[in-house]
Structure formats: structure tokens, C-alpha cells
Design goal:
2 copies of one chain form a homodimer. By secondary structure, the first copy, chain A, is of the alpha/beta class. Chain A has a single domain, classed as Ribokinase (UDP-N-acetylmuramoyl-L-alanine:D-glutamate ligase, 3-Layer(aba) Sandwich), CATH 3.40.1190. The first copy, chain A, has 11 helices and 13 strands. Chain A has helices at residues 36-44, 62-70, 118-121, 133-142, 155-160, 162-171, 179-186, 191-200, 240-255, 260-277, 291-305; strands at residues 10-14, 18-24, 27-34, 49-57, 74-81, 87-92, 99-105, 125-128, 148-151, 174-178, 205-209, 215-219, 222-226. A 9-stranded mixed beta sheet of chain A has the order 5-4-1-8-9-10-11-12-13, sandwiched between helices. A 4-stranded mixed beta sheet of chain A has the order 3-2-6-7. In chain A, helix 4 (133-142) packs parallel to helix 6 (162-171). Chain A is globular, with a radius of gyration of 18 Å. At the A-B interface, helix 8, strand 13, helix 10 and helix 11 of A face helix 8, strand 13, helix 10 and helix 11 of B.
Chain lengths: 312, 312
């Protein structure tokens, strides 16, 4: 809160707030705070002021609201509806790159119909987390001269609502998806080709998340290959992708511009945040960070990937 | 040959020379030059003088010998035996990270029994490509005060000759394996943990190859995360790992020392060479390189992965 830059630019995220039950080889957590917009908003809150638009049910624990408050996330757009909160139950095997969904109860998410307030419509940076692409289109249509709009999606929408998704992609400036989605969306197994194909759908900037392997960025024709932080103790990968996206968008909103170089730094910030997030269940680690922790891991990634010029 | 540094230090590789038949989604190549020591020796020949110890059969085409000659590889240790050359037949699907072996005919490889000459025994840098770990041990035992001995292996030996392999690993300074092998060898799915576990088996330096995702290096306690070159057109991944290892060892032998910083540069050199190699079948692209091509791609990787300091 002592961060004077936080108010200068800001960020809107529309997505899900969920109650998760997660099992990994290292333990399990029952009915913990989750959801794409949750991870995203907390991650980005370290860099800029964030407005959250999402829906929860009457069962949503007040203590979970404290998490948003603690991080200064504006929850005036977090609607409480009759019914139960969206619930996700998942498990990971030793290959922590693959989440096995055991149960999904959409609950109030089925009635989610984001109507933005005047302030929300005027937010310069906007992130549409993984929700129905028709809702993403509805949100985009309400925006008034945003500086940057980005979206994420998932295989379910690629398979069931591809036309809407392609329309939504055509309306945004940036796409942040994981490598499986990039391949499925474009039919290209090669990631450079896949990223280029997504750019041809409209967005100037594409970021392909590769989990523990890092990420590939394309800003115009410029390519950036970002490492992940090689972490020894991964506890729960849930939310890593949304945390990464929150770091990216938070850093961009903070700086108020989207150059190739700023996107590179933003991707490293995203990698730093995601690497912290997977060290504990739910948002336990992510909510316990200090700004300097993020900078320290950024510097560590820089040190881990640094190499000198070729020596003849 | 105009390269004055080539003679200063040198490198011995013991491994396989093969005749490969490969099918990828982009075409096929029948009875082409292959084998771990082949890719390795040609790749490393750009940086240092290389001695090859391997075995071929009477059917080995003289034109394939030209490849070694062209690159100044010393083939006095390439024994021609009665029988047929080792043959490998494989196919790749759209996921080019996974090779499907269709047929392996060991042929003369079954009689391979490397007895080193005096000169070979005194080579300062030695690479034991993927062969029976008992043969690797036999080679190591013949060496006279080498500067650096490294080995590669494969899942077959981990599953069938683990004791010998662990003994061989305990005798070398460096292990270069792919991520699947590192996981299978140590039982750790996490690669940092796996690399650390291999270090505990003896070697000071461990390099884990991650295919299109790059590589992870550990020199003492120092970790280096190296990117791969994000290539748009991968044609045939056969030999990429051996080419990478050839680049790494060639660069180390050229500089005659193994510091953390030199290993980092060596891993980028390996990535540069491997990225060229997969652009065509067999060694077509690898044999057509100029020294400056390698430096150019090294610089390109540097540019692709560069990012500035965190901006507050």
C-alpha cells in the first residue's frame, strides 16, 4: 500500500472465483479459495490496483473475502448470487504438469452475466480469464477505449465454442494460453507456428505458457523465450497459469505500456510469481509475499539464465 | 582447418555409428548415416580435434566415411568388423519429442570391445555416448589422467543394467542425460531434485536435456537454465541430443576448462548446433554448417532470451 505506483494505472479482471479441493502427491486441501480471477487478482495486486468482476454463491466464506481486501483488490464487482459458489475438484499425479479434473460444479457461474460499471468500463488494462467466450465478447463490447485487452481460454471452449472464441480472440490485443491450448486452437504442434497462427487471428501479442518449462512470447514479429524458475519443491501447481498471467498483466498495467522489452520483463515477473504460488496449496504462499520477494526471484531467474558472449 | 585452436585440446568419443531409417510427419529417409558418436563427433569437430572410437560392419558405405574425413574426425579408432553395421529404424509423430523405435539391429555392436591406443588413452576430454555401461566402465578404466570424462545413457540401461550404470556414473565428472532418463534413474519427477541426486552419485556436473524446452545444468551447486532455440521448422529430431552433447563437449575441450560460466556457454553452443541438426534428415544440415553459423545462432539465442533488470 506504500507503493505510489499502484494507483497510477489499473487493471480489470473478469473470471472465476472458486472453491477448490485439490489432491497432489504431497497432500490435499479441501474447500480452499481458488479460481482464475482469484489467483490473477492477488498476483497482479503486487503491481497495480485491480478491480475484480466475478460471481460467488451465498456459501462463499467471508474469510475468503479478506484475502482480496488484504491485497487491496476492488471487489465491488464481485457479485454474490443465490446458490452455491463454483467448485472445482482436481488431482495431480507425479507429473505435476497435468491436472486431472475430478468434479466441476458450475453452480452460480451458470448465471454469470457481467455488466460493467462506468469505472470498470474505463479501466485501461483488462484481462478476460478463462470463461465462456460469449461472456468475454460481452465484456469487450462494453469497454471504452482500453489500452490493452488480453484473454485466456481452455480446451473446453476450443472444442465446444470455437466460433465464439475466434471472434473474441479477434477483438483482443493479447492472448495468454498454455501450449496444449495453442496447439489445439491452431492445429500446429510447433509452438512458434502456433503463436504466429494466433497472431494472424488478430492479437499483436501472444504468450504461450509452458508450465515448468517457461513461456514463449511473441510481440509483433519479435520472439522471446522465457525460462521458468527451476524449482525443487513444487507442492501444488493449481493456479500457476493464472498467477503467471496476473504477474504479466500487473507489470504491464504498472508501466502503462506494452513494448517488447516490457513484455519480456513482465513474463519473468509472471514466472517469479508462479514459482512462488506452486510452493503451497491454494494462495497460501502467494498471499504471503512481499514486493521484494518478487524482485529477488526475478533477479535469481536473471542470474540462473545469464550467459556471456561466445568466446572464440 | 584454419582454426588454430582445434589442435590445442582434444576430445575422444566412444559410441555408436549406425545406419538409420527414419520417418517423420515431413518425410522419410532410408539407410542414412546415424549413431550417437556420429552426431557427436561431427558437432564437436567445429570446436576441437576429435577421435572417434566405434565399430561398423563390412556394409558401411565408404561415402559415409567421407563425412568424418570432411570434418577432420580421426577415424583410426573406427573398427570395421565382419558383419553388418548397427541399424536403427524409428518414426516420429507430430509430437517430435517422442521417438518410436520400430527396429533395432545391434549387429556388429554386439562384438564391440573398445581397446584404446596410447593416444586415445591420453585424450584430455572424453565422452562416452550411450552404450552398454560395462563398456563405458572398460573405457574409463583405460584412461590416463583425463581432464573431464562425461557419459550419456538411456532407459534400456537404467532398466537392465542399473548397477553397472551407477558404477560408471560414479567414475565420471559429468553426466548428460535427457529428462526422462534423469527421472527414471533417480525416481525424482522434479528435475532439480533429479539433477542433485545424480550429483550425489559422484559427478560434479549434470546436464539434463529437455528437448525443445532447453536444458538444465548443474555445476557444483550452481544451476543454469538454458533455453532451446525456438525453431519453426523441425524436420527430424534424430541425433539432437548427441549433437547437443557434441557442442557442449567440443566447446569445453576447445577452452580446456570446465567452469560454471564455460559450461553455460557450452550448453548454448549445444542448443545452437542441435537446432540446426533438426532442420534436415540425418546429418545433412549439421555437415553443411560454417563456424560463423553456429556463432550467429548463439547470438540469436542470446537475443531471444535477453531481458533487462526489473523496473520499479
Amino acid at each position: 500500500m506504500t507503493d505510489t505506483k499502484r494507483a497510477a494505472n489499473n487493471l480489470l479482471v473478469v473470471g472465476t472465483v472458486a472453491i477448490d479441493s485439490v489432491k497432489t502427491p504431497f497432500g490435499e486441501a479441501d474447500s480452499v479459495l481458488g479460481g482464475s480471477a482469484t489467483y490473477f487478482s492477488v498476483a497482479s495486486s503486487y503491481f497495480t490496483s485491480v478491480r475484480l468482476v466475478a460471481v460467488v454463491g451465498k456459501d462463499f466464506p467471508p474469510s475468503y473475502m479478506d484475502t482480496f481486501q488484504k491485497h487491496g483488490v476492488d471487489t465491488s464487482g464481485l457479485v454474490k448470487m443465490k446458490g452455491e459458489t463454483f467448485r472445482w475438484k482436481g488431482a495431480y499425479g507425479y507429473d505435476l504438469n497435468v491436472a486431472n479434473t475430478l468434479e466441476t460444479k458450475l453452480n452460480v457461474l451458470l448465471q454469470f452475466d457481467p455488466v460493467l460499471t462506468k469505472e470498470e468500463k474505463n479501466t485501461p488494462f483488462v484481462f478476460l480469464a478463462n470463461i465462456d467466450p460469449d461472456l468475454q465478447i460481452k465484456v469487450i463490447s462494453q469497454l471504452e477505449s482500453p489500452k490493452l485487452v488480453a484473454l485466456d481460454s481452455m480446451n473446453f471452449w476450443i472444442e465446444n465454442k470455437k466460433e465464439s472464441l475466434l471472434k473474441a480472440i479477434g477483438m483482443v490485443d493479447m492472448v495468454i494460453v498454455n501450449e496444449g491450448e495453442a496447439r489445439e486452437l491452431t492445429g500446429h504442434s510447433n509452438l512458434v507456428k502456433a503463436a504466429r497462427a494466433i497472431r494472424k487471428m488478430g492479437p499483436k501479442t501472444v504468450i504461450v505458457k509452458q508450465g515448468e518449462y517457461g513461456s514463449l512470447g511473441m510481440v509483433g514479429d519479435e520472439i522471446f523465450s522465457a525460462p521458468a524458475f527451476p524449482l525443487e519443491d513444487v507442492f501444488d501447481p493449481t493456479g500457476a497459469g493464472d498467477t503467471f498471467a496476473g504477474g504479466v498483466m500487473g507489470y504491464l498495467a504498472r508501466h502503462g505500456k506494452v513494448t517488447g522489452e516490457i513484455v519480456r520483463q513482465a513474463m519473468i515477473v509472471g514466472a517469479a510469481l508462479a514459482s512462488y504460488n506452486v510452493e503451497a496449496f491454494s494462495l497460501q504462499r502467494l498471499t504471503a509475499l512481499h514486493f521484494n520477494d518478487i524482485v529477488a526471484r526475478y533477479n535469481e531467474i536473471k542470474r540462473l539464465t545469464k550467459f556471456d558472449d561466445f568466446v572464440h
